[in-house]
Amino acid sequence: MKEGITIAGTIAVDEIKKIEKYPNQSELTTIKSVMRSIGGAVSNCAVSLARIDGELPIDTLAMIGEDERGDYLKERLSHYKNIDSSQVKVLGDTPFTDVYQDATSRTFFTYKGNGLYFDESKIDYQQLRTKIFHLAYILLLDGLDKEDKEYGTKTAKVLRNVQKLGIKTSIDIVSENSDRYQKLVPPCLKFTNYCIINELEAGNSVGIALRNGDGKLIEHNIRKVLYRLKKLGVKDWVVIHTPEGSFGFDGKEIHSIPSLLIDNSSIKGTVGAGDAYVSGVLYGALKAFSLWEAMQLGTAAAASSLFEADGTSGVKAYDELVKMYQEYPKRNKVEI
């Protein structure tokens, strides 16, 4: 009997530098602190899920290098008895990301390393034994972003093969400034059960902006984007998460869930908040929650991740997250 979740794709080490402010080109800025944490969807989501439910079976499917960063990732994942890393392969250099974080924003410089070689040949379908298969990040996994004559992309082919096994699929996308979204994302949506992405990724995937030039959320476009993503083939849930709140569509109802209000003095970092949100929603999907209940759990998971500088150490257990969502003040609900 299938149970649990497989997290596949991008794994990395995050080298996090807090800075005074992001400099203009050729300018100097001061690094205030330096720390290291696990990064990428595979480690972030796996650990977040393990912290939400210490008994949940979690399989990880990725590639690490036979190097110091790879050893660090293995050691960190081994802290959780319910994370199975037997499908993690060792080859080449471990990917890493330099994260520069000031008071208002984060900027990422990534080294793809062996992530360049993660493709369909690295997936043993006979070993997949979970109910949900989460693959991330589209646009960052070069081997899977390649064209496939039958399915559009290799990612789409993998998702189709997983669905044929009776396993539900989930995707996430990396945020980048490019025109690749509308080529690489729509083919995957035909074979996706849960599409859980941020507003930049959602808007770019369908060519409808969700923020204006001043960075303000274009609220009246959110419904259009949800409908468009669902029409492109998502079978169960489309969810868009933003700092202001999250928005979901299950084919029948649209839900708007406000974010929790966290005092700025309590926020130690925002790295990994998106993956924490995804983890909460996927846990809800696995446990047959309604969409709005899963979105509330994701909202609390993302908020709890802000209490620590890395992306996972602040994520709380399920009962604490439920209590946190009930008790914390919330932003005004965004009407769409």
What secondary-structure arrangement, pairings included, does this model have?
Blueprint: E1 5-9, E2 12-19, E3 31-39, H1 40-52, E4 58-61, E5 63-64, H2 68-77, E6 83-84, E7 89-90, E8 96-101, E9 106-111, E10 132-138, H3 142-145, E11 147-148, E12 152-153, H4 154-164, E13 168-173, H5 181-184, H6 186-189, E14 194-198, H7 199-206, H8 219-231, E15 237-241, E16 245-249, E17 254-258, H9 273-286, H10 291-305, H11 318-327
Parallel strand pairs: 1-4, 1-10, 2-8, 4-6, 5-7, 10-13, 13-14, 14-15
Antiparallel strand pairs: 2-3, 8-9, 11-12, 15-16, 16-17
Name a few traits of the molecule:
globular, 24% strand, 32% helix, four-stranded mixed β-sheet, UDP-N-acetylmuramoyl-L-alanine:D-glutamate ligase, 336 residues, nine-stranded mixed β-sheet, 17 strands, alpha/beta
Q: What does this 3D model show about the protein?
A:
- There is one protein chain.
- With 336 residues, this protein is of the alpha/beta class.
- It has a single domain, classed as Ribokinase (UDP-N-acetylmuramoyl-L-alanine:D-glutamate ligase).
- The protein is built from eleven helices and 17 strands.
- A nine-stranded mixed β-sheet has the order 6-4-1-10-13-14-15-16-17, with helices on both faces. A four-stranded mixed β-sheet has the order 3-2-8-9. A two-stranded parallel ribbon has the order 5-7.
- Strand 8 and strand 9 form a beta hairpin.
- Helix 1 packs across helix 9.
- It is globular.
- The protein starts with a strand and ends in a 9-residue tail after the last helix.
- The mean pLDDT is 95.
